[in-house]
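This section describes the prediction task in plain terms. A model, or a person checking by hand, is given the sequence of a single protein chain and must write out its three-dimensional structure as a string of tokens. No templates, partner chains or ligands are provided. The sample shown here is typical of the held-out split.
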Amino acid sequence: MSLSLAFSGTLIACLFVKVNSYFGLLGGTAGVMMAGLVPTICYWKLKGLRTLNQKLLVAFMVIVSFFGGLGAILSVVA
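The expected answer:
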């Protein structure tokens, strides 16, 4: 897993010529993960998904995090 992350990070760094766009991509995707996915995973592991409201909350945060990460990628690429 670590090797694949290092390889993909090196490949992305080689493809982006501008340093600002590379750091924008890293900051945007890492920010979305820290704000959306990490708390959702922690909530899921600590509380579990017993009720419908808890399942809807986790599904909503996953969808929001997906669109946030997609927006971060598209803002750098476009």
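For orientation: The helical segments are 2-15, 19-47, 52-77.
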